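quick one if you have a minute, typing this from the bus. theres a chain ive been looking at and ive put its sequence and its fold in token form underneath. please have a look and point out which stretches look like helix strand or loop to you. anything you notice is useful, everything is just below.

***
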Amino acid sequence: MFRLREILKERKITIGQFADMSGISQSNLSNYMMGKVSPTLETINKIAEALDVDVANLFKKEEDIVLVIKYNGQSIELGKDDLIDFVKSKINGDGNKIDK
């Protein structure tokens, strides 16, 4: 899964700003982020270079779990480790569920 939207959001970079930085049109960037078009290897390298990241960092591993929760008007992303920690917090040392 292509992480461009996530990376731009983390860095507070708009698509327009990134288009200027990378030399890739806004429409193409939008299509890549929506999964309508797959970027070429050359374009992927160009994006990675503009963001100063390794190409591998532009993609999520398939086994990654991400849950997005909306709370008080904000979207909060919980990753695999957050979910595992939550489940562990519900189980005590002998494997029995903690009642609340």
Notes: The chain has a mean pLDDT of 83. The longest strand covers residues 66-71.
